[in-house]
Amino acid sequence: MKTICIIEDDDQFIVKEKKWIEEMIGRCTLIFEPRKADLYLIDIEGDIDGIALANDLRKIDPTAFIVFISSHSELIFDALKTMPYYFARKDHEEDIRYIFRKIKERWEEKTLILENIKVPFVQIYYIERQGSYLNITTQVHTYKKRMSLTHILEDLDNTFVLVNKSEIINVNHVKDIKNEALIMVDDHMIYMSRSKKKAVTTYILATREGIL
User: Residues 43, 50: contact at Cβ < 8 Å?
Assistant: First the structure.
């Protein structure tokens, strides 16, 4: 069962969150203090500084699944520096329902068969071509598969994007963007080609802001 950590000081809003989770995600374990969880739903300003908490979570677990739900839309750019999965506004129920649907889709794990093992898409960081083989780097292991980038892209979903002629990244595992370089959660650097830089950067930022 998935564990969701809710950091929110408005009891009435917590009741709403519980209802949406039950309706749209299903049965989960809910905790209400910062502890290890599969998902963190964080208000930015309350008894706990949400942005500071997100930064602390990133230090402990670079892949932490963080969603901000806040009334303080003026802080969205500060919040996005922590690379959350989404920023939803409290007064936009449609936004919140959308992100809960996306979370449910993400948790209905899609997998890739690698060395006779089902590897969830969410665990794949990036894929690099090396001759006739692909090196597929995940949270725990790098797999080698004889396959073309074109064919593996057909098996993946829209969280994966080709950033140059030889590499595919999972946009949910990009920690930072510096000029042409994508810094992945394991600190590996992947460089976007000039022709793809604008489209890839726009796509990653749109995903972070919940536009896609």
Answer: yes
